[in-house]
Predict the 3D structure of the following.
Amino acid sequence: QQQPEQPQPGLANPSPAATGFWSSRRAATFDHLNRLDASGEPCRSLYVLPGRTFGETEALALARTLEPNESLEELYASGHALGLAGAEALGAAIGRHPKLRVLCLGDEKFGADDADGRPAEPLLALARQLPENRSLTTLDCERKGVGPATLAAMLPHLMQHPRLAELKLGQNGFGCAGARALAQAARSVAPESAPLGTVATLSLVAERIPLPVGHR
């Protein structure tokens, strides 16, 4: 009698080992950032997976690990809540980092205006320190709950960054008030300058919008 075909492991049929890995809530660790891998290469990309625990304790640990680091180029810790202390510590470490190019931090409430309509302190604390950095080219703030007050408060800091080329703001729902903040920021610079400092690509929905120099 022919045996039924066994389904192959995959996303629709994860193996027990994969199921255990993805469902575990182990705390994220970062000791490997400052070590060479088996091939003698340094760590250049760090992704904190959704299944890992990443709170203030882990954010502070990551900030300490980044202090001596000179190789990381991409940092993704999206979908994890990040408070003021963690944001300040990571902002300070990122401000001094020599090679980080791509940054994505925080969950869907990271940039939400508070109940009184004031800017989100954690995201603003991070934004204040980004101009100290000299390597960042992409800041991914998609699905971070960025409110209009937070957007208006963070834009002046981002416009001071010397190399930031791409700003992702899609899926935030900051509405017309946020769009006005973007327009006011663009009008605040000299006519011969780019509308948002060095930012050349702005993502507001799912499409990337090139910003021509001198566009008003």
Q: What stands out?
A: The two ends are 75 Å apart (CA to CA). Residues 8-12, 14-24 have pLDDT under 50 and may be disordered. The chain is about 30% helix and 10% strand.
